[in-house]
Design brief:
The chain is of the alpha+beta class. The chain is built from four helices and 21 strands. The strands form three sheets. A 16-stranded antiparallel β-sheet has the order 4-5-6-7-8-9-10-11-12-13-14-17-18-19-20-21, with no helix packed on it. The protein has a three-stranded mixed β-sheet with strand order 1-3-2, with helices on one face. A two-stranded antiparallel ribbon has the order 15-16. It starts with a helix and ends with a strand.
């Protein structure tokens, strides 16, 4: 109606001019102009009609109890959007991260965006396998209650035994995560036993390129030292801000800022973690991985559990995380409060036959860290290099077997488990 009104307005303006001309010309001009206006209006209307008919519709299959709306809220769907394979994969990942589906398939055709899902059972079980270098392994069960009432609410119970004893639960409703964890273990240097209780609530904001978790916490740490059985109890109210920005699958930043307010006689302190990773792949599937990690602590006198053990798989390979298991000259220079790590790893595909369909890469790495107890002065340098074998089924499930060599020529074996 708006378009037609505009044509009529133009027509009236033209007629005012034409009325000043002789009658024959006026009638001829009016006839031609009227037909031109009608033709333009018809073509405009027809174009709008065609566009409305080619808009994509969304079709969801397999959601027997899951609300259609919570699925739509997790995808980047637009009725007139051209979907690339990257956007489709992103939607699949977003839906799988809800942890209520066993599988997700997306088909994009000319006029439909089809999502096929397979829902998890209400109750499912999974193994809990944990490894903390320098501490040890632990195993146990996880009980999952999935997709309560079909609105994406999940409840988890878990427990583990071994070097790292733990028990706890998690409740997740796609926006808020409530979690309680109890952990008990010996420190890397075995100079104290840790018993800690963590209760926290995370509010989660997830967008296409970034995610933000804002987490208030109540943390209690009981440290029993071997010397004289001295006990130190720390209680903190902590506020943590966790920001992840994903440029693409191969390029990601993470920033974690945490401020700890003491609820007893100890000092407050803050920590900052900045992670960056970048992966370069070429057509022959050779891969270069670059990682950098910056960890800063505002207080030199912060508790012992904030110590960073610079040797080992998480920092510089070629050293043991326990300082006492290294060459004497290094023993007093492997524990700090602050560090800046840079690591580069080059991987070349090789063929090794396994019973299962697994991929293997030969890898070479170089790690370099500068560290110190004062964040303003990172003076101590440590480096290691080596070779290894990477075994993986996908980028989400990967195991690296590394032989690290330090500057004294001593060799250390590292088993790195990467499961995302």
């Amino acid at each position: 109606m708006f378009l037609k009104h505009q044509w009529l307005e133009v027509e009236n303006n033209v007629l005012t001019y034409v009325n000043k001309k002789p009658s024959f010309l006026r009638r001829l001009f009016f006839y031609m102009l009227k037909n031109i206006f009608n033709l333009i209006f018809f073509l405009s209307y027809f174009s709008l009609l065609i566009n409305s008919e080619v808009k994509k519709t969304i079709q969801i299959n397999g959601n027997k109890k899951t609300s259609k709306q919570i699925i739509i809220d997790k995808i980047n769907y637009s009725s007139q959007q051209n979907f690339s394979s990257d956007k489709i994969n992103e939607d699949k990942n977003n839906l799988m991260q809800m942890e209520i589906f066993e599988s997700v398939e997306i088909i994009n055709n000319e006029n439909k965006y089809i999502i096929n899902v397979k829902e998890k059972k209400l109750i499912s079980y999974a193994p809990l396998i944990r490894k903390e270098e320098g501490v040890g392994w632990s195993v146990g069960p996880i009980i999952n209650i999935n997709n309560i009432n079909g609105v994406g609410k999940n409840l988890y119970f878990f427990s583990s035994m071994g070097a790292l004893k733990s028990t706890g639960f998690k409740y997740f409703n796609q926006k808020i995560l409530l979690e309680y964890i109890y952990n008990s273990y010996n420190s890397i240097e075995s100079d104290y036993k840790m018993n800690k209780n963590n209760l926290f609530i995370s509010y989660m904001i997830s967008k296409r390129k970034y995610s933000v978790n804002i987490t208030p916490q109540l943390n209690t740490y009981n440290l029993t030292y071997d010397v004289n059985n001295e006990v130190k109890k720390y209680q903190y109210f902590s506020l943590m801000y966790d920001y992840i920005y994903t440029i693409n699958k191969k390029n990601q930043y993470q920033i974690i800022l945490k401020h700890n307010i003491s609820l007893n006689a100890y000092d407050d302190y803050s920590t900052l973690l900045i992670n960056y990773k970048h992966i370069i792949k070429n057509q022959s599937t050779n891969k270069i991985s670059y990682k950098t990690k910056l960890i800063l602590n505002s207080n030199i006198e912060s508790p012992d559990f904030e110590n960073l053990y610079i040797g080992g798989e998480n920092f510089v390979r070629g050293y043991n995380p326990n300082p006492m298991e290294n060459f004497t000259a290094y023993q007093n220079n492997l524990v700090f409060k602050n560090t800046f790590l840079q690591s580069i790893q080059f991987e070349i595909p090789i063929k090794i036959k396994f019973k299962q369909s697994l991929n293997t890469n030969l890898l070479f790495f170089y790690d370099y860290a500068t560290s110190g107890n004062n964040y303003k002065s990172l003076n101590y340098k440590l480096k290691g290099y080596g070779v290894g074998l990477s075994i993986f089924k996908s980028e989400e499930i990967k195991f690296d077997l590394c032989l690290g060599i330090n500057t004294r020529g001593y060799k250390t074996f590292h088993f790195i488990r990467n499961i995302n």
